[in-house]
Amino acid sequence: MSEYKKEDVVIIGAGPAGLTAAFELIKNNNFNVTVLEKNEKIGGLSRTTEYNGCKFDIGPHHFITQSDLVEVWWKEVMKGEEDHGNRFVQLKRFTRIYYKKHFFYYPLQPMNALFGLSIFESIRCIFSYIKIRLFPIKKVETFQDWVTNKFGYRLFSIFFKTYTEKVWGILCTQISSDWASERIKGFSLSKAIFYAFFGKWAKKNAPRTLSDTFYYPELGAGTLWQKVANQITNSSLGKIKLNSSVVQIKHNNKNIISVLTGDFNLPINSAKKLQEYKAEHFFSTMALRDLILSLDPLPEEKVLNAAKKLVYRGLITLNYIVNKSNISPDHWIYVHEKEVLMGRIGNMNNFSLKMVDDKNHTALSLEYFDFVTSSFWNLSDEQLLDIGKNELEQIGFLKKDLILDGMVLRETQAYPVYDKNYKESLKIVLYYLSGFSNLYLMGRNGLHKYNNMDIAMLSAFKVVNELIDKSKKQDNYFVNNYKNNSVSL
Hints:
Blueprint: E1 7-12, H1 16-28, E2 31-36, E3 48-51, E4 54-57, H2 68-77, E5 88-92, E6 95-99, E7 102-106, H3 110-117, H4 119-134, H5 143-151, H6 153-159, H7 161-168, H8 177-183, H9 189-198, E8 213-217, H10 221-233, E9 238-241, E10 245-251, E11 256-262, E12 275-278, E13 281-284, H11 288-294, E14 295-296, H12 301-308, E15 312-322, E16 332-335, E17 344-347, E18 362-370, H13 381-394, E19 403-416, H14 422-433, E20 439-441, H15 444-447, H16 453-468
Parallel strand pairs: 1-2, 1-13, 2-9, 6-16, 10-14, 13-20
Antiparallel strand pairs: 3-4, 5-8, 6-7, 10-11, 11-12, 15-18, 15-19, 16-17, 17-18
Helix pairs in contact: 1-10, 1-16, 3-4, 4-5, 5-6, 5-8, 11-12, 12-14
């Protein structure tokens, strides 16, 4: 271990993966760690923002995992927080789908679905399912192919198509089947029905998507990550630099030398002084497209073109303070109505009543998905807030006059897009980057994998382990190949 002692590590990104890696490296006590974060707050998509007495996540986050390693890690981090009124509590999940002015429980409850869809539509769904089981799609290439094979076309069109196309902004026939196989793996109509009737006796083996409990910090998802960040900065070995956007990555013969950052929150006309960070090792969670385009010297044209083809979907959350309590019992409502643009409603009060200072108020969060080049994305905050208010009233969820205040949050690269051609571009990019001797990729955007928070953390555990024991460093960065979402340490 002495050969690694006090080597310098630069970590790009202070989201769950970046903070997990920094925390683990500091515990090892053999590295000086600097975390570079482009935003003014840590946490990435898992941060919590306070506004006029209410707390909002970037779309409500829940802490759920099939990895004992991750669950124990969360609980260890949150030890002692109960003394500060911030318990790490286990909640029973309540989620519904809103479709044609009916609420459908998710996970599926057969009688609820039957009465919500009508007998005629239910029969059509059953026959559609039987048909696809007898005559499945043999060449499965798209999201639509994959889900139709699992559920039948009728259920696909009701419970998957509209919401999925809202999220990705492209047709389900243009989305790779990879996304479905990762997000809905191990799930089918027969399993949904089985767990709906017998789930309480078989919870341990239920697919992750059917889990009915999760953990949550009472003062918001971001408070766990803020505690991690505090432990990093309170150590003599750790630093976190905010407002530090990576603009250049210098390398020589596939060995990274330094990273240059600038503060792009400064006024347009002000001088933006660049800061250079040198290190022996570099961990990255930044979007692969940006990583490639930041390299100096740049890679060959084939790699550049591949990187430019990697696409990202932005997320806008409209966060409202509502002058009403007990609006709905849901943690999330997935909105499958075509007539409105919103994709999901999150009720922060149902995650924790401590998310609002006034017990008569509700902190409500609406999620919209778009590309940053769209006219919708570039609307003013006031225009966006008006759209959200009108849509809440349009679907009969809430009278807009009850909304007291609101604010808008934008995330430009919330989701790596799995279009039909992404795999070839990703393969080219990852093959090129695997040749760097001191670069470690992790996290959702760092791997271009639409993973949940716990899998992003597992990718961080993996690369930390590879650095500590360099014999374990691999060229294959697809962390989802871990069996059962676990990692061997």
